[in-house]
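Q: Please design a sequence for this.
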């Protein structure tokens, strides 16, 4: 009899989880929590395997509708994050990105690029209390900085080499990632 009730509770819990995933109002929050739980530290690419940006010819648009020339960031450490307001893994990693941004915004170039309307992207940032700078692409990205999978992030060193390429949610506010940033800034 004890085993029967134990199995019943497991079945009830599974039904509740399945129903929560089916109901649209609960699906996104559950997906965000799940992505936070599975977010890993972004891995650094071995030095000899790091691809280099082919060109800095790329025009972005900031939230004020000003054109931003990617060429102005040449020689700097850059973090590019492709994201969207509707993307649960993107939303899951935003708190850790915001924490890193608060500590490194004067040393590292942060580019949060969305294909959505800038008002919508900025509205999301404002609603969540994030200070992250949002952009839209006005011209195509330079190779190999594609961002078809969301989220996709790139950490680029001062020489234009991609130190980290991470697809999916990550825990950016880790000691390991901060150490990587500090090393790149020191060179």
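A: Design:
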């Amino acid at each position: 009899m004890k085993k029967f009730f134990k199995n019943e509770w497991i079945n009830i819990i599974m039904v509740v989880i399945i129903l929560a995933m089916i109901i649209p109002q609960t699906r996104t929050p559950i997906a965000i929590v799940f992505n936070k739980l599975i977010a890993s530290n972004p891995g650094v690419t071995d030095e000899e395997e790091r691809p280099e940006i082919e060109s800095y010819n790329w025009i972005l648009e900031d939230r004020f509708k000003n054109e931003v020339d990617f060429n102005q960031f040449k020689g700097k450490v850059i973090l590019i994050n492709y994201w969207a307001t509707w993307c649960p893994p993107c939303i899951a990693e935003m708190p850790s990105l915001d924490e890193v941004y608060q500590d490194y915004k004067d040393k590292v170039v942060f580019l949060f690029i969305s294909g959505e309307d800038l008002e919508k992207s900025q509205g999301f940032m404002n609603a969540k209390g994030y200070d992250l700078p949002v952009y839209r692409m006005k011209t195509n990205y330079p190779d190999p900085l594609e961002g078809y999978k969301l989220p996709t992030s790139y950490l680029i060193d001062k020489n234009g080499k991609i130190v980290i390429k991470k697809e999916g949610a990550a825990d950016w506010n880790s000691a390991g990632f901060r150490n990587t940033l500090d090393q790149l800034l020191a060179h």
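Q: Thanks. Anything notable?
A: The chain has two domains: 2-36, 39-186. The chain has a mean pLDDT of 88.
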